[in-house]
From TrEMBL, chain A:
InterPro entries associated with the record: Apc4-like_WD40_dom, ARPC1, WD40/YVTN_repeat-like_dom_sf, WD40_repeat_dom_sf, WD40_rpt
Coiled coil: none
Superkingdom of origin: Eukaryota
PROSITE patterns in alphabetical order: WD_REPEATS_2, WD_REPEATS_REGION
Pfam family name, one: WD40
Chain positions covered by the region annotation Disordered: 288-309
Reported function: Functions as component of the Arp2/3 complex which is involved in regulation of actin polymerization and together with an activating nucleation-promoting factor (NPF) mediates the formation of branched actin networks.
Intracellular or extracellular location(s): Cytoplasm, Cytoskeleton, Actin patch
Record flagged with keyword S-adenosyl-L-methionine: no
UniProt name for this protein: Actin-related protein 2/3 complex subunit
UniProtKB/TrEMBL annotation, chain B:
Primary location class: cytoplasm
Record bears the keyword Cytoplasm: yes
Biological role stated in the UniProt entry: Functions as a component of the Arp2/3 complex which is involved in regulation of actin polymerization and together with an activating nucleation-promoting factor (NPF) mediates the formation of branched actin networks. Functions as component of the Arp2/3 complex which is involved in regulation of actin polymerization and together with an activating nucleation-promoting factor (NPF) mediates the formation of branched actin networks. Arp2/3 complex plays a critical role in the control of cell morphogenesis via the modulation of cell polarity development.
Protein name from the UniProt record: Actin-related protein 2/3 complex subunit 5
Length: 394, 156
């Protein structure tokens, strides 16, 4: 059963757990990051990190070094480190400003696997790759610029700490080398290439019908890349061939994804529920969803008709107008409840690995515009057949 | 308060501004070539329609359909031919025909349905026929198909 937590009445912009999942960093659609502690079955805010002037767009919590990086529309990023306050003796989170050198909003941030670098995507058609300069005691950035033509919406690190995938509003997903001489050892060759100076382009792939690339992700081995576009498609790239598998979906676009194993991806977006994709180099398919539409949820989340249909074509305003048209009913009938049959009641904006077990990720967490955080078991996949029958217009 | 600065197109001061031509790959064919092809397809479709092969006719006209600038007349011929097909199909057969089309063809069909709906009164455009096809196509290809029509810069 998925664990459901309500964090607030406002959208959750982004979320990130600490290493042992006892604390959670979120931003509730404003310029502050909140650190929450779990008390019973609830997440309760304990510390507020306020340094940004504008909306925080992304947060990442490094599991080993226990540092938090936040980035914002104010074009800044801060690295937060827990330190002992010399006066009170208590632990406080100390911010360090990062010199990003970008002139547009920062959109997405991720620590590298070794946690000695992080990448900040931005609207300045650039990705700032930041590393720590011990001499001056600050974080410096180096910009990946070419050949990005528009806002970068998502980044993801390759396990070798050097390669970086980026999805951009110029309809391209790219793989760059983010090799920093002062930090990185010479990387061993991968399927993406062997000579990798900074800003080498190791791959460039386009969405099938011109959609912005909202999400990118390397597989656990780093040998495969997945990206999801605003044209309701998800593509999986095997660079050797290169082999490109594209799935065009019937539903609304995905905006976030994470690999759970070498042959499995969990992705979510405007359709309000996490979908599971499974496959190999031979081919990929939509395997189902983690949101079981027939499972009993809290009683009030089931809408009046009780039919196991998912999707908004039959509910809400559409049904109101249809009833008015076909039956001459002007008042809202019991069927026209605005509750969705999915657990998330609005777009899911972030899906991240939560727990590891066996061959890969065993649980994922999602957060979205409905202010809800949900932890899902990735093996509880439900086929989509009931939905397909239900998405008809009448 | 002076607010006119909000109306300045800041992109004009950017030397590296993104151009329309960079948003999608241009059609490799010459405009004249595209026009010639559209005319040939129109003839082929007439033949297929006389044999009542609607799915074949749709595939013929929608496969590799003209897109981008400078091919307006080819686009018009394609739209006119497509409308002939749509108007001459029995409404009971539509679902079966749509299911037999490839996903590419379904996406292109949706683009033309929207193009037709955007030109009321043009040629043989009939709102009720287009809406009927739109409903059936959405049942088969889902709202994802509509999303692709909206995002795709390769406008037909």
């Amino acid at each position: 059963m998925p664990e459901i937590f309500s964090l607030g009445q406002t959208p959750v912009t982004c979320h990130s757990f600490n290493a042992d999942r006892t604390q959670l960093a979120v931003s509730l659609n404003n310029n502050e990051a909140l650190i929450m502690n779990k008390q019973g079955n609830e997440w309760v805010p304990s510390i507020t990190l306020s340094e940004h002037d504008k909306l925080i767009t992304s947060i990442d919590w490094a599991p080993n070094s226990n540092r938090i990086v936040t980035c914002s529309q104010d074009r800044n990023a801060y690295v937060w480190q827990e330190q002992t306050d010399p006066e009170t003796g208590g632990l406080v989170w100390k911010p360090t400003l990062v010199l990003l050198r970008i002139n547009r909003a920062a959109t997405h941030v991720r620590w590298s696997p070794k946690e000695d670098k992080f990448a900040v995507a931005s609207g300045a058609r650039a990705i700032a790759v930041c590393s720590f300069d011990a001499e001056n005691n600050w974080w410096v950035s180096k910009l990946l610029k070419k050949p990005i033509r528009s806002t970068v919406l998502a980044v993801d690190w390759h396990p070798n700490n050097v390669l970086l995938a980026a999805g951009s509003a110029d309809m391209k997903a790219r793989v760059f080398s983010a090799y920093i001489k002062e930090v990185d050892e010479r990387p061993s060759p991968t399927v993406w290439g062997s000579k990798l100076p900074f800003n080498t382009i190791c791959g460039e792939y386009t969405t099938p019908a011109g959609g912005w690339v909202h999400a990118v992700g390397f597989s656990p081995s780093g040998d495969v890349l997945a990206f999801a576009g605003h044209d309701s498609s998800i593509s999986i790239v095997y660079p050797g061939g290169p082999v490109l598998h594209t799935i065009r979906m019937q539903t609304l676009p995905l905006i976030t994804l994470t690999w759970t194993a070498e042959d499995s991806i969990v992705a979510a977006g405007h359709d309000c529920r996490p979908l599971v994709f499974a496959g190999s180099e031979a081919g990929w398919r939509e395997a189902g969803t983690l949101d079981d539409p027939s499972a009993a949820k809290s009683p009030d989340s089931r809408f009046g008709g009780g039919s196991p249909t998912v999707g908004r074509l039959k509910t809400g305003a559409f049904a109101t107008f249809r009833d008015a048209d076909t039956r001459g009913q002007s008042s809202a009938s019991p069927v026209t409840d605005t509750k969705l049959t999915t657990i998330h009641q609005n777009t899911i904006t972030s899906v991240r690995p939560y727990a590891y077990g066996g061959a890969g990720v065993s649980q994922v967490s999602t957060s979205g515009v409905d202010g809800t955080l949900v932890v899902w078991d990735v093996n509880a996949v439900v086929a989509l057949t009931s939905r397909l029958g239900g998405s008809h217009l009448r | 308060m002076e607010v006119n600065f909000r109306k300045i197109n800041v992109d004009q001061y950017d030397e590296d501004v993104i151009q329309e031509s960079e948003l999608y790959e241009a059609d490799p064919r010459e405009p004249a070539e595209v026009l010639e092809e559209a005319k040939q397809r129109q003839v082929a479709v007439r033949g297929l329609l006389s044999k009542n092969d609607i799915a074949g006719a749709l595939t013929t006209i929608l496969d590799n359909a003209p897109y981008g600038p400078n091919v307006e007349s080819a686009k018009e011929i394609t739209l006119q031919t497509l409308l002939t097909i749509l108007n001459s199909t029995k409404s009971t057969e539509i679902s079966v025909i749509i299911k037999s089309l490839s996903m590419d063809t379904q996406d292109t069909l949706m683009k033309y349905i929207y193009k037709g709906m955007g030109m009321p009164g043009w040629g043989d455009v009939s709102g009720s026929v287009l809406l009927g096809w739109h409903e059936k196509l959405t049942e088969v290809a889902g709202v994802g198909c509509i999303v692709r029509t909206m995002t795709d810069r390769r406008i037909v």
